[in-house]
Amino acid sequence: xxxxxxxxINRITRKIMVLDYIVLTKVFISAALGTLVGLERSLSKSxxxxxxxxxxxLGACLFTIIGMSSxxxxxxxxxxxxxxxxxxxxxxxxxxxxxxxxxxxxxxAADIWSVAAIGxxxxxxxxxxAFIATAFILFILRPVKFxxxxxxxxxxx
Length: 157
Known about the structure:
This protein is mainly alpha-helical. The chain has helices spanning 3-43, 50-69, 73-94, 106-124, 127-141, 143-151; strands at 96-97, 103-104. It has one domain (3-151).
């Protein structure tokens, strides 16, 4: 093998290793943030608990990485609406109305949609925004729920 060829192969190998670490970091962060929201949902006895939330965030992150990896913005502009519509479809399947007319699953559908957005943010590399969004989601799910109960506000679940 020619020395110039060996140097080229080494540079390519190093670039691939760096990209793998970036992808692994994104995957870990998206799963961790989804798990945080999922733990709260599990404590609230939500049907979409820890594993579901982590997988939704992770899946959205992976699809974002795939869409961005081609380097063509047209590919990513098709992937993002697919994520949004797909998660909306899952959320729509969670919402139901009881025999007494009460609606259930609205909060679960909304938090799944929000967790998917966190996964997209992480996949795009917007880590700070993803952390802030996770904090807001957790704030809305816990303290706001407590405030609603204290004020006697009846909401759909």
